[in-house]
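[job 4471] stage=fold_predict status=RUNNING
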Amino acid sequence: MHDDRELVEARLERVLRERIRPAVHPLTAPLDVEIWSTPGEPVPVAEGLAATTRPIAPGTAWGTPWGTSWFKVTGTVPAEWAGATVEAVLDLGFTPRTPGFQCEGLVYRPDGSPVKGLHPRNSYVRLGGPVAGGERVHWRIEAASNPDLDESGVPFSPTLMGDRDTAGDAPQYVLGEMRLAVFDETVWELTIDLEVLGELMAELPVDGARRWEILRAVGRALDAVDLRDVNGTAAAARDELAGVLAAPAVPAAHRISAVGHAHIDSAWLWPLRETVRKVARTASNMTALLEAEPEFVFAMSQAQQFAWIKDHRPEVWARVKQAVADGRFVPVGGMWVESDTNMPGSEAMARQFVHGKRFFIEEFGVESEEAWLPDTFGFAAGLPQIIRAAGARRLLTQKISWSRTNRFPHHTFLWEGIDGSRIFTHFPPVDSYNCEMAGRQIAHAARNFKEKGVATHSLAPTGYGDGGGGTTREMVAKAARLRDLEGSATVRWEAPAAFFDKAEAEYADPPVWVGELYLELHRATLTSQARTKRGNRRSESLLREAELWAATASVRVGFPYPYPELDRIWKTVLLHQFHDILPGSSIAWVHREARETYARVGEELEAIIAGAQQALAGAGSVELRFNGAPHTRGGVPAGGAAAGAADGAVTPVPRQGGGLVLDNGLLRVEIDERGLVVSVYDLTAGREAVAPGHAANLLQLHPDFPNQWDAWDVDAFYRNTGSDLVEVESLGTEGTSVRIERVFGESRVVQLLSVPHGVKRLDIETEVDWHERERFLKLAFPLDVKADRYASETQFGHVYRPTHQNTSWEWAKFEACNHRFVHVDEPGWGVAVVNDATYGHDVTRSIRAADGGATTTVRASLLRAPRFPDPETDQGTHRFRHALVPGATIADAVREGYRANLPEHRRTGAVTAVAPLVTVDRDAVVVSAVKLADDRSGDLVVRLYEADGGRAHATLSVTDGFAVDRAVRTDLLERPLVDAGALPAADGAVALDLRPFQLVTLRIPRG
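[job 4471] inference complete, writing structure tokens
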């Protein structure tokens, strides 16, 4: 037989495009359209429905950037359409761009009840069953004219469209056709038949019989279609395809569990307020699709997004509640938002699950066992324990498939965290969290699946995200044909829990991955938008203190514990840890609002702290120092207060040859005439910290122009060039500090260096007035330490990373995350670099030619200046606090990290001391939270963890306020653990034995 394969395939593509798809709507009638545009921000639905409108014709420009317009759409079904299925096709001016990145709409009936959302690949509204003819139709559409930030066609081009204040008022869209149309279901079904078979055929081997069998059937079907009468011949064409569509899949076919999905970023290339509406549109779409498709299942994560629907769209919320009760609209993930997991602190990461799971339990009676993070930029090594402690045991993610250097070796595996906790984890081999049920995607999932031979199941999150409206009827129809089709993986709609049950049952002994799941991409998100990161860190610290002091004052003096305020503030902070807000990858509008929000949060929390501390101190003139850190500091106990002034710092003295010296008898720091730290000498150990021939506290400036993803990425080649900032504008003293001023480019930096009395620590305060573009600023500490690995703090412990680059896996970690400290050491002596607001860093190792010694260089990443999506990223003034701690152990690093982030509060009062409410007798066991139980029972909740990485025996005591007879071990939601009995208390003390990095939550009942 002659090879006519390419001829038939090309014929299929053209006939589908030009004849069959257009015939889905063979008859149309125009609708009348009127418009009203809001003068400012979106208005309530009732106001939009009642607004006075004016006529608008197709082809008319509408929609200022970030504006809202309400369309009134009316018409009459032609009488001659009686008995037909009719739908409206409503084109707001959609472009071929992906849904979610342009104009969107939500259709309402005149009474305000929602119908469904609109986007370019889902622009229909069905009238119902067969029409009688003559029916009047009337809808209102709330349409958002969100600008397309990539409209230039050049990816990552700087744009002022990312903030309403700078976007201008030029119309963004041109109204398309608004029309009623007869829907020919037979032609539509033929379209899906041909698309599925054509897509499958393209994935099959050319020399395989199945491909040719499909090709011949497609050829016969196309012969059966009369191009002058597609509607009259579509049924005959379908008959020609019935046989190949009925052929069952082979028994060994890969099995895909499809779950409806719409990955909606809680903010990204749109502000938070727009996500509120994106979620409502998508939920309306999905509840409508669930009603029409009995096998379809939709899953939605992020309790915050459910809460937005509840608070802002009660009419949509009612439909969601019913669909959840029916078991088909599935709350999944159990987190407040799909947060970043690298940068949130220990308590914040825990509270993501506390607030997320509690919302699902209280609103729906549903508790998800799955963490759901398809798009997060890597996963911290402390996360498995947190997931377990929240009562979950599974994780789904997709993003690791984006890694650029190494392919992750598993799709289904056990992930082990720093404490030994393991969770069952799945990476969908479809390599997308926006699967469209395309044949290439289904075939890729089957080919790509790394567990072939030992497992058969994978999951495919299916639907358009980013406000794109979720799953479409076309995707559901394709899945129906792929349920059992020869040559394809099989597809079933299933909830995530059903997939995980099957995957676990068939794979009893999966491989284990130990440590962080590092994403080899988007490393710059650890540095971009420094003010957002500082706001997050400060908010976490203030929340810790607000709970601690409010609980102490409540127990001691009856201070009213601010339950509603803390709940609301926690949720606000958790929202801003979303994986495009805290990482700095959102538009200018988002980060402008974040700065304003963090300022308000800070004021509220400072007021709570001040009120509680004043209640404990009483009225008087005794000066008290309150220590919110988990370690005694300057004679003030952890979680307590004491009278007296804090120790100051030593006075700088001139250095021979130029510069200044800071010497407190434990540490001698020499600063040369360039303002560089050339010596940090540990006098007690007789050890120099700064590598010979090098200088510490060295600011280094690099070009920063990644190949793409400007705010997200820093590429390895940035290190190839750069400059050391050694020119000094001025060098002198300011009080007890050495003051250094430098000017470079368009920017200026002022640093204050000091050494406190009685502590081996060099404190560094850096203020940068930053006006560079596409530059990367680092702060370097070249240390005379031979370290093959280093420790970075993460949630409830620390993680080790190599300093060498033996393999591509190690080379790829050229920028990584730490929380409050980085620690490097040799046996018996180490150095810590601590910070109060930075996360990104790098650690490298070299051998000196002069003496053969090793230099380990720790560099903190301070600032970047990407131009997309916010062209003004980080412009302006920033402040950073770092400290270099020679001779530090891990325990010292932990202590100094908390000190840098929890400065003392000073109050005047009537007492000379405030005893801590809770004490722990071992520094290795760190208290991360002291609070009252969320259920308002008055019970005390204490969370603590082993911080050094070893076993620990400790005693926890409640000093006074109520009698303690027992402590109950609980999960993060403060519910007693089934397998853990109560811990007895003796004289108010509870004995604890902790594994390395073990997290423990104790609930202490109050009589």
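[job 4471] summary: The radius of gyration is 31 Å.
[job 4471] exit 0
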